[in-house]
């Protein structure tokens, strides 16, 4: 496990799923972590279950609201000092999005884009200028943004845009010594969006064409993200990594 003692990270969407697993992994590795989520009670539960609650900060925030994001990042600096990175895990999927583009609901499209893309952008805009050389960022997109495999216009568009935004951030902030990479999860079980994969029948149907023939876990994603934030991957930037059991190679 990487050593993150003395480092501080902002994790959005930290109350559940991949965000929760990432936050717990970082705290266990010695980091200070701001748990940013629209569900402060859920984030508090994560803090209390972490290896050291004293190294966590719960920040209630809607990542689609600029003032909320800035307040959360300011509070993190005030509590822990220098920032060393962020993980933009906050995201939503609306079942109403599962329709043909010609039938797509504009309200649904705007809501998903506002959280998944705008929320990622606002977090990056608030954090990146505060990072010094050695800082690291991991954005969370989806294999939907790579494959366009029927997850709906809003979700697919938002995640594809996160991939492009990540590459731009890596180019712009690389000269400052800041690394930016993107993780694209495939089928991943956990709380929140991953809860559907807890149904064995559904998980089996969704993974018939996955080379590893199984669903991933939020903990596996958290470990991957932590490695990308660590000095162990200090020459890795601008990369889009599918953590999907091999699904995207088919």
Would you give an account of this structure?
A seven-stranded parallel sheet has the order 3-2-1-4-5-6-9, sandwiched between helices. The chain contains eight helices and nine strands. It is globular and about 45 Å long. It is α/β, with parallel strands linked by helices and 250 residues long. Helices cover 41% and strands 16% of the residues. It has a single domain, classed as 3-Layer(aba) Sandwich (Rossmann fold). It starts with 7 loop residues before the first strand and ends in a 7-residue tail after the last strand. α1 packs across α8, α3 packs parallel to α4 and α4 runs parallel beside α6. α1 links the parallel β1 and β2.
Give the topology, please.
Elements: E1 8-12, H1 17-28, E2 32-37, H2 40-49, E3 56-60, H3 66-80, E4 85-88, H4 106-127, E5 136-140, H5 144-147, H6 153-173, E6 179-185, E7 188-189, H7 200-206, E8 216-217, H8 218-229, E9 240-243
Parallel strand pairs: 1-2, 1-4, 2-3, 4-5, 5-6, 6-9, 7-8
Decide which structural class fits the backbone.
alpha/beta
Strand order of the largest sheet: 3-2-1-4-5-6-9
Write the CATH architecture name: 3-Layer(aba) Sandwich
The Rg value, from CA coordinates, equals: 17 Å
Number of helices: 8
State the CATH superfamily name.
NAD(P)-binding Rossmann-like Domain
Q: What CATH first level would be assigned?
A: Alpha Beta
Q: What separation lies between the terminal Cα atoms?
A: 31 Å
Q: Which regions have little confidence, pLDDT < 50, spanning 5+ residues?
A: none
In the CATH hierarchy, the third-tier topology is known as Rossmann fold
The major β-sheet equals: 7 strands, parallel
Overall pLDDT level: 93
Number of domains: 1
DSSP strand tally: 9
Gross morphology is: globular
């Amino acid at each position: 496990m990487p050593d993150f003692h003395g480092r501080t990270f902002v994790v959005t969407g930290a109350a559940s799923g991949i965000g929760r697993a990432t936050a717990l992994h970082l705290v266990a590795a010695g980091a200070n972590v701001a748990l940013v989520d629209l569900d402060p009670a859920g984030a508090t539960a994560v803090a209390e279950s972490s290896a050291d609650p004293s190294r966590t900060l719960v920040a209630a925030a809607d990542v689609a609201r600029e003032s909320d994001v800035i307040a959360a990042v300011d509070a993190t600096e005030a509590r822990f000092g220098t920032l060393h990175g962020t993980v933009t895990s906050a995201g939503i999927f609306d079942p109403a999005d599962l329709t043909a583009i010609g039938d797509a609901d504009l309200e649904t499209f705007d809501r998903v884009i506002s959280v998944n893309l705008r929320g990622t952008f606002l977090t990056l805009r608030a954090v990146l200028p505060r990072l010094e050389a050695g800082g690291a960022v991991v954005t969370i997109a989806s294999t939907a943004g790579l494959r366009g495999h029927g997850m709906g216009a809003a979700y697919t568009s938002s995640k594809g845009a996160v991939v492009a935004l990540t590459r731009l951030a890596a180019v712009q902030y690389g000269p400052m010594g800041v690394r930016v990479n993107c993780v694209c999860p495939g089928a991943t079980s956990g709380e929140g969006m991953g809860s559907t994969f807890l149904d064995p029948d559904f998980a089996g149907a969704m993974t018939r064409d996955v080379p590893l023939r199984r669903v991933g876990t939020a903990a596996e994603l958290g470990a991957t993200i932590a490695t990308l934030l660590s000095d162990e991957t200090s020459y890795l930037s601008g990369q889009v990594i599918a953590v999907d059991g091999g699904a995207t190679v088919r």
